[in-house]
Amino acid sequence: MRPAIFPFLPDPGCLLLLLVSWLFNPARSEITSLDSGNIDDILNNADVALVNFYADWCRFSQMLHPIFEEASNVIKEEYPDKNQVVFARVDCDQHSDIAQRYRISKYPTLKLFRNGMMMKREYRGQRSVTAIADYIRQQKSNPIQEVQNLEEISSLDRSRRNIIGYFEQKDSDNYRTFERVANILHDDCVFLSAFGAISKAERFSGDNVIYKPPGENAPDMVYLGSLTNFDLIYAWTQDKCVPLVREITFENGEELTEEGLPFLILFHMKDDLESLEKFQQEVARQLIGEKGTINFLHADCDKFRHPLLHIQKTPADCPVIAIDSFRHMYVFPDFSDLSVPGKLKQFVLDLHSGKLHREFHHGPDPTDVAPGQPIQDLASSPPESSFQKLAPSEHRYTLLREKDEL
C-alpha cells in the first residue's frame, strides 16, 4: 500500500497576508526594453508608444525610472491591450546606434511614436505620474471633431488652421488615412470631419479634404491627390499646418532651439499683422531655398523685450528683424529694406559665410569699402545669443555636449 500523500495546506493567516499584499501591491507592469532586434517590430505595432531614452549613470534618468514605471501601471489599467499604448525604454550606453538614429542629445529624453513614426514634439511636460498619464490620455483622445451640420463650418475660429474632411462614411480607407494624419498633426491644425448626408453637398466629386487658412477672407485650398496615399496627404497637410514662418513663444522656445538651426526673427507688435505678412511674403520669395538651414520665426515684441534689449532695441522700434546664431545676435539694418530684391537673402547668406561675424569684429570687408576710403579695423563685440537661454535646462537634463558621448 502506498503511503498517503497529504497536500501542503498553508496557515490561514498566511493566506490572508498574501491576499492583502496582492491587493495593495498589484503586479508592476514591465517596461519594454528596446534594442536593434526588436525596436521596429514593437514600435510599428503600437498605436502609441512613449520611449524613455536614458543612461544609467545619469541622475535625472535614475529619478525618472520609478515615475515612468508607475505612469505605465496607471495607463495599463485604462488601455489593457498591449498594442494600444506601449511604455518602452532604450539604454543609450548599450544601444548607441539607436540613440544616434533618433538624435538623442540629452538624458532622459521622452519621445512619442505613432505606428512606428516618431513625432516631432517630444514630451517636455512635468516629470510626474499624473502629468505623464494625462499626456498619454490626451494622445489617445480623438483628434478629429465631428461636424453635425455644415453651419458649424461657418463659425470656425479663423485665427486657426483648419483641415476639414468630407466623407461618405467613417468606415472607409479614405477616413482611416485622414485619421492617421490627424493623429500626427493635431497640435498644428484643427481637424474636423463630416459624414453621409451632412457632407453630401461638399462631395460633388467624391470624398474631399480642404484647408481653411487663417483669415476671414483667405480662400480654401483643396487636396487633389489620392486620399488613401498616406505619404501624399501627410506631406500636403504638413505643408498647410506647419507654416514657413512660425511663431516663437516661451512654450515652444526649447523645442525650436533644440532643432539647432539659427533663427531669423521678425519682432513685431501683436496687432501689427501687416509687417508679419510682408515678412512672410519676402521669406517665401527670397528664402524658400534656405529652408532647412535656418528657422524663420516671428515674436511678440512685448513678450520678448529681453532679446530686443540685447540688440539695443525696444518695442517702440518694432518691427525689427534679427538673426540669432546661438552665439551672437545680428540686426537687419532697416525694416524698410525688406522688399528690396535679394536684401533679406543676402543677410542670411552673410550669416552662413561668416561675414556678419567678421564685420562685427573687424568692420566692413575690404570689398565693401568704396575705392579711396581707408580700411579701418573697428573692433566690436556683437550681442550674445539671447534665445540660446531657452535651450534645455541643465537642471532637468544631462546634456550631451560631445558627439562621441553617444
UniProtKB/TrEMBL annotation:
Keyword annotations: Chaperone, Disulfide bond, Endoplasmic reticulum, Signal
GO terms for MF: protein disulfide isomerase activity
Region (Disordered): 362-393
GO biological process: protein folding
Compositionally biased residues, Polar residues: 378-388
The organism's place on the tree of life at top rank: Eukaryota
Cellular localisation: Endoplasmic reticulum lumen
Transmembrane segments: none
UniProt cross-references to CDD domains, sorted A to Z: PDI_a_ERp44, PDI_b'_ERp44, PDI_b_ERp44
Main location: endoplasmic reticulum
Record's GO cellular component terms: cell surface; endoplasmic reticulum lumen; endoplasmic reticulum membrane; endoplasmic reticulum-Golgi intermediate compartment
Role noted for this protein: Mediates thiol-dependent retention in the early secretory pathway, forming mixed disulfides with substrate proteins through its conserved CRFS motif. Inhibits the calcium channel activity of ITPR1. May have a role in the control of oxidative protein folding in the endoplasmic reticulum. Required to retain ERO1A and ERO1B in the endoplasmic reticulum.
The protein's name: Endoplasmic reticulum resident protein 44
Taxonomic placement: Eukaryota, Metazoa, Chordata, Craniata, Vertebrata
